Each structure stands twice: as C-alpha cells, then as structure tokens.
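Study this pair:
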Amino acid sequence: QVQLVESGGGLVQPGGSLRLSCVASGSIFRLAIVGWYRQTPGKQRDLVAAINTSGTTNYADLVKGRFTISRDNAKNTVYLQMNSLKPEDTAVYYCNAGSISFLMNGDYWGQGTQVTVSS
C-alpha cells in the first residue's frame, strides 16, 4: 500500500512562489510515475506535471516555464516548484503515484493541499 502526504500549500500573492512536497511511503514510489494534479470546485482533476523514475517530465501547457517538478528517490519525495503564480492557479493540488504512463494517472492519491493565489 502506498500513502502520499502533500504539504506546502497556502495563500500567496500573484507573481509569488510556492513549493509543494509529496512524501510517499511504499516501494512502488520508486517504480512509478509521480504527478501533481489540481482541481477546482465543479471541475475535473487535471494533470499539472508528472515525472518518471528517469527524471523525464511532462507538463500541462498552462504551467510550462513557470512550474518545475522534481523527485528525490532517496527521500521518496516529489516536489513542485511553482513560480509566477496567477489567480487561475488557485486549486487543490493532489499528488498521484502508481502510473506507468504519462497518459493516465496512477491508483494512489494524497489528501490534497490548497493553493490560493490572491492579492
């Protein structure tokens, strides 16, 4: 069983930065793609960024050039560095693990962390 715990969300002004962390328990973490998704009320959960075990990354067009995903396998941790934040980045951000493809999400989800971008 894999457990994912996110942290790092909060309130930030437009143009500011936040770094989200996802700490995982369970060995599958090292064998799988880990991604960050976000969701706003009434909308589906969308991929933000994902990274595989080799460090290959995949980003949503809306965040390219502003967000950076990275992973530290020794610490079972994936990070999402978010820069130049915009109000439209406001959402609950979820960590996901277990997929073997960038085209689908894995079976494991964290509880989510709220990111609010507002002046």
